Hints:
By secondary structure, this protein is mainly alpha-helical. The protein has helices at residues 5-13, 26-37, 45-56, 66-69, 75-85, 90-97, 101-115, 120-129, and strands at 18-19, 42-43. Strands 1-2 form a two-stranded parallel sheet.
Amino acid sequence: xIEDDDMVFAAMRAGASGYVLKGAxxxxxxxxxxxxxxxxxxxxxxxAERVAAYFASRPDPAxxxxxxxxxxxxxxxLELLAQIASGxxxxxxxxxxxxxxxxxxxxxxxxxxxxxxxxRAEAIVMGREAGVGLDRPDRPxx
Length: 142
């Protein structure tokens, strides 16, 4: 990718676990993919410095209240949004919540309509920006 703060932070808000610059050599790319697969966050030195400075200058956010962030969603839809923002697909959500795939599909469509989004990625970004879906137990966080 290109070395642009807006692109880096947009990628992070969307849940990226790393950011490799366009000029990276093959060995760096392989190491980065292996590290992300192992649960690490990977950013080049220049980017890492800017990311650290950005977060050091921001106050800690208040704890998220999903119901307040998304008053238009029902409790079940909030639960599903958290699953979506955690990166789960509809099949995994249906299995985990003991719902039919069709029920999940219908609820996801309702969530997209109520949030005025047309893509799963947009819903993920909105959810994560509100602090929803960040505590996925099978995804290590540092």
